Amino acid sequence: MAPYQWQDYATMALQPTAITVIVTFLIAMALPVLLHMYLYRRRTVTQLPEFLLIGPSGAGKTSLLTLFERGAAAQTHTSQVPLTVQCSLPLGTVAASNRFRSVNDPTNKVHKKFLLIDTPGHGKLRQYATDSMSKPHNLKGIVFVVDSAALSADVEDTEALTETAQYLHDILLTLQTRQTRSKSSRGVAQMPVMVAANKLDLFTALPAKLVKSTLESEITRLRSTKSRGLLDSGVGMDENDQDDREVLGGAGEGKFEFKLMEEYDVPVEVLGGSVQGAEPDTAAWWTWIGQNL
Question: Where are the strands (E) in 156-253, listed by range?
């Protein structure tokens, strides 16, 4: 008996026999399930929510990263390249995505995972932060870490305050410009920012409310200086309203307040805490992450 040729198998597959119907049915049922499993696993692995750590050098970003990852602070060194770690939300902190679930839902007993991305704070290495903001694949929020002790009025050297405010000004302006220049009619997704006032365990540290008002005052000064520079140079004189999108908060006059950023879907909160010390205080920071997770 001559062996079957491929044409014979093709002919058999097209015949309305019982085995052909059964095989076709099994393929039709199994293929969507297998495809769903493949895509679900791939999506789960590659699209964990992300939070970006930004701030000047010495503010405590890497220490915060280590504490969130390991549950304990450790000795760190100044970052030279970005570092990404996987963290888990404490079980006592409810993620926004689970807020409508019952307290008895087993899902609430599972740690919610996310990625925390630390970026170098040195002035020459801050492009890593801006690059991450320009391509926010699954970015849920930005944590801007500041040294609350270095912002105190008792500190004779005001360079730390100026540098911190300048960096925060530039980050907020980048987010504002991202919103105003979006080509989509719906704009871009909201990007919450938490200013983490670190080192509150130190005696000279400013409380969170004073950190907020101090940064707002310094940004007001910087914004006014930049606005005068634009007027003196004639930049934007041929454009309607001088293209106020380039001025943080939309206007260069008056006091700057973080609440102005809400118009651009960039809500800003200033929350205090500490990474070092006998008992690190990060409860407010964890709560904020949970609210945006």
Answer: 193-198
